[in-house]
Amino acid sequence: MNITEFEQAVLAQKPVESEHYDPEYFTGDWRAEGNNYSLEKRREIEAKNPSLIKEVFQPRRVLDLGCGPGALMHLLWELGVDVEGVDFAESSRALATPEVRDRITVGDVGDPAIKPAGAYDLVVCREVLEHLTVFQVKRAVVNMVRLTSRFIYVTTRFHPSPASLLDFTTQFDVDPSHITLLNKDMLRLMFVLEGCRSRPDLEARMDWGHKGRVLVLEKIAGR
Ligand SMILES: C[S@@+](CC[C@H](N)C(=O)[O-])C[C@H]1O[C@@H](n2cnc3c(N)ncnc32)[C@H](O)[C@@H]1O
User: Fold this and answer.
1) Over the stretch 44-88, which tens digit does the pLDDT of each residue have?
2) Is 92 close to ligand 1, i.e. is its CB under 6 Å away?
3) 36 C-alpha vs ligand 1 centroid, how far in Å?
4) What domain range is 132 assigned to?
5) Nearest 5°: CA angle at 124, between 123 and 127?
6) CB 171 within 8 A of CB 181
7) 126 lines ligand 1 (CB under 6 A)
8) What is the CATH number of the domain that holds 132?
9) What is the tally of structural domains in the chain?
10) Tell me, what's the pLDDT at 32?
11) In terms of Cα–Cα distance, which of 51, 48, 23, 53 is closest to 37?
């Protein structure tokens, strides 16, 4: 994709509305291998992720941006981690456990007024960016860097075989709302330009499944 093609593709994208993420989205049978958002299924899928997050980042306050029904929040809460979440889907709060429901704020990942700047030493954003337009990804990146005082931990789906930095694609066979699979270097570049450095050491620890879908960034003080 050259810059002209990139520009046209970005301008043609339409955001996915919050209503798309209804209870059927999170709990329906359309999900491969019963991969739904019940707490018990998520406990199985997350495996050592919650304890690894605690061990690797040793966070004091965590924000889960695009938290969905809050299963990761619940699992972190069980470990004594102070965690809050943001998601624009009302169903997220409705499906969340009573233990974390009131810790979820309904709002947009790109909203600069959603929470105070630097209020969290770890911002988590997992399996969300592929659901956003490129413009929305840019705003979410800016917001994550604003919200964190130190670490950002992202997982997302990337373009499997990009021919250029600008290439991005869709993945409708897996999820009809997977509208933006970026080149991994492009997403990293967005964070670097906002004043972050890569932490390949922490990335390797968090990517224990070797799926290549993890980014860990550290905000550079004073940038
Ligand atoms: C695939 S789910 C991931 C949920 C959770 N982070 C996880 O890893 O299980 C994607 C989530 O992103 C949320 N989302 C998508 N676009 C958003 C936006 N612009 N602002 C806030 N949340 C958004 C959806 O409501 C949904 O809960």
Assistant:
1) 999 999 999 999 999 999 999 999 999 999 999 999 999 999 999
2) yes
3) 14
4) 3-219
5) 150
6) yes
7) yes
8) 3.40.50.150
9) 1
10) 65
11) 23
